[in-house]
Amino acid sequence: MQLPSPAKLNLFLHITGRRKDGYHELQTVFQFIDLCDTLDFVLTHNNQITISPTIEQLPTEENLVYKAAKLLTPYKKVSSFGIDITLTKQLPMGGGIGGGSSNAATTLLALNVLWECHLSLEKLAELGVTLGADVPVFVMGFAAFAEGVGEKLQKVELKTPYFLLLKPNCHVSTGQIFNDKYLTRDTPPLRISHALNLGGHNDCLDVVRKHNPEVNDAYLWLKNHGDAKLTGTGACLFLAFDKRHDAEQVNLTVPKQWQSWVCRGCNTSPTHDALTKWVEQNKG
Where ATP is bound, by residue (predicted)? Predict the structure, then answer.
C-alpha cells in the first residue's frame, strides 16, 4: 500500500487560555494542502516494525511513524503481522505544517487496514492524540474548526484556494514560543460561524518574528504580495490566491534562500482519498 501524507495549514490560530497542565486552549481552522510525503507499507509476517530510511539524530523508537505502529500492535488480527515502512519526505521538518503528525496518522490509517484491526476513526484519533495534538485531524480526514488543544473537531467546508507556501531557512522551537511571557493567551473565543466569516489571526506571529529574524524577513517580503499568514508556530508562511497562475507568478520571485511551493487547499485529506481507492481495488 502506498499513501500520500499531506501537510496542513492553520488558517488562523487563537490562544484562548492556558490549562493547569501547561497546555494551551486553542481555536483554529485546519485545512489540508496537496503537498505530501509518501509512505509505502509492505505487510510482513515476522512481527517486526522496520522504518526506512533512518533519520539522522532521531532514534527509531522516537520516530512518530514507529510510535504509531506500536500503538496498533495490540489490535492486530494476527499476532505475527509485521510491517516494513518506507517514508519519502517532501514536507519540511519544523515548519508548522504537521508533517510528523500526518505521517503518524497515515500509519494508523494504513495499518488499521493491513493488520485488520477494524478500529473506528474515532478510536484511531483517540490513540493518535497521545502522539500529538495535530494527529486527530489527519486521522479524521476533514477540514475542521478545532478547539481544546486542537483535538475537538467540527467538520467545515472551506474555499480551496491556491497557496504559496514559504519556508524560511530556520527551525522554530514550539516550546519557546508557547512559553514566551509576551504570548497572547486571552483572545476571546469565537463561535464557529464568526470564525469562518471573520477569518482571524495567529497569536504566535509576533513572538515568532521576535525570536526568528528570518521568519520576520520572509513575512515582510510576503506581506508585500497580500495577506501573509503564519501556520502553527511556523516557520512556514502562506498566502492564498484564487488562481494558480497568480501564485506561480509570485513564486518565481521568491528569494533563493527560502524554499517555496504552490499547492491547493483540500477539504478532504489526500490520504483518505487514496486509502478509499486502495480498499475498493483490493476487496476480496
Answer: 92-102
Residue bearing cell 500492535: 73
* Residue 211: all three cell numbers together: 525570536
Kindly report, residue by residue over 243-264, the tens digit of the pLDDT. Answer: 999 999 999 999 999 999 999 9
Asked about 8 being catalytic, the answer comes back as yes
Which residues does residue 38 pair with via DSSP β-bridges, in sequence order?
4, 88
- Same domain (yes/no): 220, 99: no
Annotated binding-site ranges for ATP: 92-102
Binding residues: 92-102
pTM, to two decimals = 0.95
Residues 69 and 115 in one domain: yes
Instruction: Give the other-Cβ count within 10 Å of 219's Cβ.
Output: 20
Active-site position among 67, 134, 167, 229 = 134
Segment 180-207, tens digit of pLDDT: 999 989 999 998 888 888 788 999 999 9
Instruction: Work out the widest C-alpha separation in the chain, in whole angstroms.
Output: 58
Q: Which domain holds residue 50?
A: 2-157+269-281
